[in-house]
Amino acid sequence: MSVILGRGKKNNIAAIVGASAGVGVVFLIIATYTLYKVVKKRRTKKRQEKFFKRNGGLLLQQQCSADEGGVEKTMLFSAKELNKASDGFNTNRILGQGGQGTVYKGMLTDGRIVAIKKSKKVDESQLEQFINEVVILSQINHRNVVKLLGCCLETEVPLLVYEFIPNGTLFTLIHNGNNEELPLTWNLRLRIAIEVAGALAYLHSAVSIPIFHRDIKSSNILLDEKYVAKVSDFGTSRSVTIDKTHLTTVVKGTFGYLDPEYFQSSQFTEKSDVYSFGVVLAELLTRQKPISSATTDEDYNLSLATRFLMSMEQDSLKNILDPELINQGIEQEVTAAAKLAQRCLNLNGKKRPTMKEVAIGLESIKLSSVQSTTENFQSPSHIEGESVVFSDNNYTWTTEVDSFRSVSDVHPLMNKH
């Protein structure tokens, strides 16, 4: 009997020891895993802090220090949140790719659809450009400028988060065939031109420090669900003070839209944006690309700006105009817009109008168009030399319109023969 009890006691002791060892092993595994997670979290945090500094986080804080709450205005997203929003930056989510990076479609946890711009791997020479875009867009609140929602600097490459603009670019609308749902009518072209001109006038004149975009082109003009124009891609933009010029060692921009004066002098002014807008306006009038790939016609080897100016000088606008705009009873309005584009494309920057003047000129064309179908409507010719107020939800300006003639005073350039 005592032998059996002895054996039972030994078995109990063995069971206890075994259970204790098992618990110890489990505890060791848990402790090891916990320690691993803590170490990994610390390493991830240090890595993110390293990326934050490398991606210009300190530069962002420095640039925003002059503006109280500037950093807070730019929402900082976590890498985890944006990775989830873009489904791990799935290639199926790509909206577009360009020289500065790739844009992905994403959905935030609150259900908002966004566009996430993943920059290319940057070096120190490109950091300022990226942070510059963040700072500039954080200061802008305009219905015709794409809204920056925030950024993420804790990833290997920096990320920008914008409002999602669903209907592509103006370039696509103009050049990629007819949109059956939205024909490119004269009224639509004029409205888009007015919206873009108003946004640029705001950037040049209505903000505390003038902002020059430096890369205005139809592919940088997005269209929202109502086909309202939104100016985008401020990566090469500059805030300029005092002399309102910017001297660069490397000329940046897009050929076909690039101001020849800026190309020669490397000195960018507000009139350089005006030139680029003139090319966009010429695109809207002609539906021709800024740089043509055609080789059969010698004239098509020239830029659109050059061909447009030649047509204007030769009094042959009809030869380059989009055929859809001919014989629609809008000759005076189209001619006035062409004259305005010609002024924007003047090779002498000093002779170009300001964007504020361009915006007012386009508004006067719109008013004249309305007058032609509405009785007792006061035309711009009745208010020449007087102050006119144009405004939207974000800004208001009053200016003189005596530099613009009434549309009815413009000599037709579209020959009938």
Describe the structure.
The chain is α+β, with helices and mostly antiparallel strands. It folds into two domains: 61-163, Phosphorylase Kinase, domain 1 (2-Layer Sandwich); 170-409, Orthogonal Bundle (Transferase(Phosphotransferase), domain 1). Helices cover 43% and strands 14% of the residues. It contains twelve helices and 14 strands. The strands form five sheets. It has a six-stranded mixed β-sheet, with helices on both faces. Helix 7 (186-206) runs antiparallel to helix 12 and helix 11 runs antiparallel to helix 12 (355-371). Residues 246-250 and 375-413 have low confidence and may be disordered. It comes from Coffea arabica (Arabian coffee).
Topology:
Elements: H1 2-54, H2 57-64, H3 70-73, E1 75-76, H4 79-85, E2 94-98, E3 101-107, E4 113-119, H5 124-139, E5 148-152, E6 159-163, H6 170-175, H7 186-206, E7 211-212, E8 221-223, E9 229-231, E10 238-239, E11 245-247, H8 260-265, E12 267-269, H9 270-286, H10 304-313, H11 331-344, H12 355-371, E13 387-391, E14 396-400
